[in-house]
Structures are given as C-alpha cells and as structure tokens.
Write a structure and sequence with these properties.
This protein has one domain: 2-Layer Sandwich (Beta-Lactamase). The strands form 2 sheets. The protein has a 6-stranded antiparallel β-sheet with strand order 2-1-5-4-3-6, sandwiched between helices. Strands 7-8 form a two-stranded antiparallel ribbon. Helix content is about 20%, strand content about 30%. With about 180 residues, the chain is an alpha+beta fold. It is built from 3 helices and 8 strands.
Length: about 180
C-alpha cells in the first residue's frame, strides 16, 4: 500500500490510461488534483538519461531550495541511484504504468521518508515523453527544520497493480507432524 495521496494520483492516471497506453498529456487537468499541486512535478524526456523538470510545485522547489525548471531530475538523486532510476523510467515508457520510489530526503541533519511517483504521459503523436510526478512525505516535514534536500536516496522501486505485487512469503508448513518448508 502507498500513501493515500500517492494512491489517488495512481488512480487518476489509471482512469485516463487505455489499452496499455499512457494517458495523453492533454487528458491531465491540474484542476483535478489542485490540492496536491504543491507536491506535483512534470518531467520531460529529452533523451535517455535526460529528464528535465518542466514544472514543479512549491513544496518540491522549497524542499530543494532551488528553481528546478530545466534541471535534470536524475541529478537530484544519489549517484548510485541515478542509473537504477533511469532504467526504471525507460522501462515504464515501454510498458506504461506508474512507478513509485520509496526514498529518503537526505539533508545535513535529519532525513525524511518519502514516496516519489512517476507516471508516463503520451504526446499526441507518439509514445511517452513526459512523466507526471508526486512528492509524498511519509512523516512530518518539520523534522527537517528548514534544511534543504542535498539528495534523494532510493530505498525501493515498486509498480502498483496485481501483476507487480510482491510474491507471497514462505511460511512454515508441516506434513504429518514433520516440518517441510
């Protein structure tokens, strides 16, 4: 399960997707999720590994203490996480579905757990060339005490949906009083 705001954005994206295709950019109306706009961002894919921030809400910019327009979103992540995220973004372009990164906002003091949603959007003339995103804090932002994010550190990548759920955990089983698994 994800945070309710993350779930809400996934449901919004899913309601606009059809026949295995990402929703069109024109089908996304910011007024539909205006209460989340401070946490929303949009990335443009210029080429493999180049995902420029095209729009970022107030919370996103404030967290990084900079105007993010034009910044390659991969540079906001720790060095070891950049290739992993790039690979995942390219995969959801080919197989359009939302992607949620569970991450830590790293500062020079406290950290902040957060979900970061990436959901591909399609241009009218082709495949996905944008990503609709959401920064969803999982604890009180005040714990950062005004410190800016130095980087995002990835803990886990997940795709919602039945086909991508985790496999069931192995449980202890016994047959005739004898433990077998």
């Amino acid at each position: 399960m994800f945070h309710s705001n993350t779930e809400r954005m996934i449901a919004y994206w899913t309601a606009r997707a059809a026949n295995g295709r990402a929703p069109s950019r024109a089908s996304v109306q910011p007024a539909d999720f205006r209460h989340l706009m401070p946490q929303v961002f949009i990335l443009g894919r210029e080429s493999r590994g180049q995902y420029a921030v095209r729009l970022s809400g107030g919370f996103v910019g404030d967290l990084h203490r900079q105007d993010l327009r034009g910044v390659n979103a991969l540079t906001l992540w720790s060095g070891p996480d950049r290739l992993r995220l790039q690979t995942a973004l390219e995969e959801i372009r080919l197989r359009p579905e939302p992607l949620v990164a569970t991450a830590e906002v790293v500062t020079d003091g406290a950290s902040l757990p957060m979900e970061v949603l990436f959901a591909p959007l399609t241009a009218h003339d082709g495949g996905p060339d944008r990503f609709l995103g959401l920064y969803q804090p999982l604890s009180m932002v005040a714990r950062l005490m005004g410190r800016p994010a130095l980087e995002l550190s990835m803990r886990r990548l997940r795709r919602p949906g039945a086909a991508n759920e985790e496999a069931p955990r192995v449980r202890l089983a016994a047959v005739g009083g004898r433990q077998v698994a």
